[in-house]
Model the fold of this input.
Amino acid sequence: MQPAKNGFALLIVLWSLVLIGLLTTQIIASGRTAMILAGNVQHAAQAQAAADGAINEAIFHLCINGADQWQADGTEHVVNIGGIPVALRIDSVAGMINPNLASTALLAGLFQAVGADSGQAKQIATAIIEWRSPAPNKQQRQARLAAYRQADMAYGPPGHDFAALSELADVRFMTPALLADALPYLNLYQSGDPNPAQAGAKVRQALALSGQSGTKGDAYTGTSPVVFIQAVAGIDGRLTVRRQAYVGIAGQNGATPFQMLSLTDGY
Done:
């Protein structure tokens, strides 16, 4: 009996050692995973800080005068922030159309330029103006709501500016295809009518169709030019962070050299 008891005790000891070994392996693996996750969080924070620092450097170069001034012309600049390389691209939005400011004629011109017939383009443009404009009275507000109900839409125009371009999808008569084609030419940070000298072919066509401007830029009424800055920071090819900013640039001679309008993650 004694040998059997000893053998059973040895078996228990062996199984206990196996269990302890498994638990130790799991704890080590969990620790390594936690260290990797912590390292990723740290690297992401470093990359984001580098991208934001690069955006501030871009703003500095946009505001100054002289040989070190940068232009918002799409040129790529690579800067080093804290040992992290960051690729910067700066573009002006002066050649784009702001649906919160554009006239009915200009909006109709744009949708006609991207493929709508003149009647459909006019309908969409009128609906956009209606969406962003307060109804003058209760009767008009109810009429707008009834028109959306008739189109099987469970809402009506809010009567205030678009907060995001995606809201254009909810406008009456809008189609997904037309919106997708028009979005590259729309921007909520444009401060006036598009400058033909900085506009793409579709925007210039929209201006021509609207009769609002020729090619001399006389339709541009913006004050402080707005630029779009994109910063892409990478660490050892393992992690990439993209940050995007819209900034109003008045320059070093302005009362306020710049104004940060938006700073977000980019995708």
About this structure: The longest strand covers residues 239-249. The beta strands are 73-81, 84-92, 226-235, 239-249, 258-265.
